[in-house]
Amino acid sequence: MTEQNHPVFATPNTQCMTMDRARPVDLVKLARQTGGDRALEEEVLRLFLKQAKGIARAMEGQADAEQRKRDAHTLKGAARAIGAGAIAETAGALEQTPAEGGCVRALLSEIDRTCDYINSLLR
Length: 123
Fold this sequence. Notes:
By secondary structure, this protein is mainly α. Helix content is 67%, strand content 0%. The chain has helices at 27-33, 38-60, 65-82, 85-96, 101-122. Helix 2 packs antiparallel against helix 3 and helix 4 packs antiparallel against helix 5. The chain is elongated and about 40 Å long.
C-alpha cells in the first residue's frame, strides 16, 4: 500500500504514521487538539489555509519589518495549534530577524509546502 492510499487522518501506531518530516502537519496533534472530530479537523485546516495564504500574500510585498514580525508571530501560534512544526519554527526564526530576506523566502516556501499538503488532505 503506497502512502497515497493511506487514510488521511491516521491513528497512532499504524503503518500510516511516519516519523520523519514527510508530513508537514502532525495529524496526531491535530486530532488531539480537535478531540478526534474529523469535521472539526477539516474546518481548522481550512481556516489555517486561509490565514497562512493571507499572511504569505502580505509578506510577499511587505517592507515593514515590524509588520512581518507580527505576522510571523501570528502564524507561529496558528501553526503550533495544528501541528505544523516546520512553519512554526520558520516563523519563529523570522520573528527574531524580521528584516532578513532569507527568512521571509524560507517561510514562504514552507507555507507553500504545507498548504499543498493540507489541500491534498482536503480533496
